[in-house]
Design a protein that fits this description.
51 residues, mainly beta, 4-stranded antiparallel beta sheet, 76% strand, elongated
């Protein structure tokens, strides 16, 4: 799996990335939003939302 970040926003303790994720075997791609919650300078939670 490979992900290319197309856009990034930071809101409070959340980092929101719009990504294009590509399967390394089938070469299929999908657009998704990844939301990372930051606590004590580390990622504490992650949510993935497919478009």
């Amino acid at each position: 799996m490979f992900a290319e970040i197309k856009n990034r926003s930071i809101v409070g303790n959340k980092v929101i990335d719009w990504e294009i994720a590509t399967n390394g075997i089938t070469e299929e791609s999908t657009s998704l939003m990844a939301i990372y919650e930051i606590k004590d300078h580390l990622i504490s939670k992650v949510w993935f939302i497919r478009e």
